[in-house]
Structures are given as structure tokens and as C-alpha cells.
């Protein structure tokens, strides 16, 4: 004898609640980056960071680790989202184009109206105590690595005849890096983009590379 399976009685439908809003890690990291950018590493407190990121301290630790780890992540984010112009600049056809793109790109980032002015790497490394010295050293190493890449590009320019044979690529790269850092300090102090651009015009007028026909 077969038993007929009875269908379960209809249940009243329940209103579906939407899926909980997912945590946007990149957005939170951007907010932390802006705090560090404006106030430096030691000047940024955990209450300021958690308020800006919209999360409490246990959640911050769970997702990003401690303040030091968060700062490292913020620096990585800064490099990938704000300094991404550097790679394209280094591929420009002449040393003059390379340097001008690097300087104008830096000035644009340093004076962006939607972000703190200056440079995260510069502000983050200033006024660091002994506990933050490893972070400062890492920022200095990152800056040195960018200068090294520029030096190699300028050495190529010398080899190709784009720069005079007597040009010192290392000294020129150091000069450009110093200008970028100086602009960052000026921007953090209130210098406008137009003011930084005038500085760049002065630098480019003295650049030893070939003048383009304009």
C-alpha cells in the first residue's frame, strides 16, 4: 500500500529583508588615508581614525590590525591611487616630458581640492618619534626607490643623447625629488596649484634636456 505524501500547508510569506550592507574596505581605507595625510602618523589618533572610517576599534583591529599596520595599508593605497601617474610619466619620450609630467602630476595630487594638501609620504614622515622610526624609514625607502627609477630613466636619456653626455643623472634625479618634496611642504602650507605650476615652469626653463618645438 502506497502512502500519499501530503504537501505541507502554505505558510504565510515573510517580508524579505535586504542583505546587510557590506563593509567597503577600500572606502574605509581611503578615509584613514586622508586622516594620516592631513595629520601625519603620530598626529592621527585612533578615535579620529575610527570616526572617519565609520567603525569601532575592535573592528578596525580585526580588519586592518593595529595603527601601524593600518598606516602601511594607507600608504599602499596612496601609491596605487594617487601616485599611479608616475609609471606613465617615466615612459614619456624625452627626459623633459618625464620630469614635467612627474612635477605637474605631483602638484595636482598635492593641491587636489577633494583631499588634504601636501603629500602623505612627506607628512607621515615628519616629526616621528622613536616608536614610529621604522615607518619613517620605510617612507624614506619608498621615496628613494622612486628617485632611483627616475635616475635610471635619466641615465637612459644620457645614453640616447636626449641629455648632454656630461649630465649627472643621479644629481638631476635628486634635484627633481627635492623639488617634489618642497612643493609638498608648500602645498601643505597653503600654496595653490598655480603657484606650484609657476615653480615648475622655472624648473623646466633650466632643464638641460632638448627643448621641444612649440
* Highest CATH level, the class: Mainly Alpha
How would you spell out the order of helices and strands? HHHHHHHHHH
Q: Kindly report the CATH topology.
A: Tetracycline Repressor, domain 2
Gross morphology is elongated
What would you give as the CATH superfamily?
Tetracycline Repressor, domain 2
- The helicity comes to 55-70%
GO molecular function: DNA binding
DNA-binding region: 45-64
Organism: Pseudoduganella umbonata
Keywords: DNA-binding, Transcription, Transcription regulation
Task: Furnish the topology, listing elements before pairings.
Blueprint: H1 25-43, H2 46-53, H3 57-64, H4 67-81, H5 85-90, H6 95-110, H7 120-125, H8 133-159, H9 169-188, H10 193-205
Helix pairs in contact: 1-2, 1-4, 6-9, 6-10, 8-9
DNA-binding region: 45-64
Region (Disordered): 1-25
Domain HTH tetR-type: 22-82
Question: Summary?
Answer:
By secondary structure, this protein is mostly helical.
Descriptive tags:
214 residues; mainly alpha; Tetracycline Repressor, domain 2; Tet_transcr_reg_TetR-rel_C_sf
Describe the structure.
Keywords: DNA-binding, Transcription, Transcription regulation. InterPro entries: Homeodomain-like_sf, HTH_TetR, Tet_transcr_reg_TetR-rel_C_sf, TetR_C. Residues 1-13 have a biased composition (Basic and acidic residues). By secondary structure, the protein is mainly alpha-helical. The protein has a single domain (25-206), classed as Tetracycline Repressor, domain 2. The protein is built from ten helices and no strands. The chain has helices spanning 25-43, 46-53, 57-64, 67-81, 85-90, 95-110, 120-125, 133-159, 169-188, 193-205. α1 (25-43) runs antiparallel to α2 (46-53). Mean pLDDT is 88; it is low at 1-21.
Amino acid at each position: 500500500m502506497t502512502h500519499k505524501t501530503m504537501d505541507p500547508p502554505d505558510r504565510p510569506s515573510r517580508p524579505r529583508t535586504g542583505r546587510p550592507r557590506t563593509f567597503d574596505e577600500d572606502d574605509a581605507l581611503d578615509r584613514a588615508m586622508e586622516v594620516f595625510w592631513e595629520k601625519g602618523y603620530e598626529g592621527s589618533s585612533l578615535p579620529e581614525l575610527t570616526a572617519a572610517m565609520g567603525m569601532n576599534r575592535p573592528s578596525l583591529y580585526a580588519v586592518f590590525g593595529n595603527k601601524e599596520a593600518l598606516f602601511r595599508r594607507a600608504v599602499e593605497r596612496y601609491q596605487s591611487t594617487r601616485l599611479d601617474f608616475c609609471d606613465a610619466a617615466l615612459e614619456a619620450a624625452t627626459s623633459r616630458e618625464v620630469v614635467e609630467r612627474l612635477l605637474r602630476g605631483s602638484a595636482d595630487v598635492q593641491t587636489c581640492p577633494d583631499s588634504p594638501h601636501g603629500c602623505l609620504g612627506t607628512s607621515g614622515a615628519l616629526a616621528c618619534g622613536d616608536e614610529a622610526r621604522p615607518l619613517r624609514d620605510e617612507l624614506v625607502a619608498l621615496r628613494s626607490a622612486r628617485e632611483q627609477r627616475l635616475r635610471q630613466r635619466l641615465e637612459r636619456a644620457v645614453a640616447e643623447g636626449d641629455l648632454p653626455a656630461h649630465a649627472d643623472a643621479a644629481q638631476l634625479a635628486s634635484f627633481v625629488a627635492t623639488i617634489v618634496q618642497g612643493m609638498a611642504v608648500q602645498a601643505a602650507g597653503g600654496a595653490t596649484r598655480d603657484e606650484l605650476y609657476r615653480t615648475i615652469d622655472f624648473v623646466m626653463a633650466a632643464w638641460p634636456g632638448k627643448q621641444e618645438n612649440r
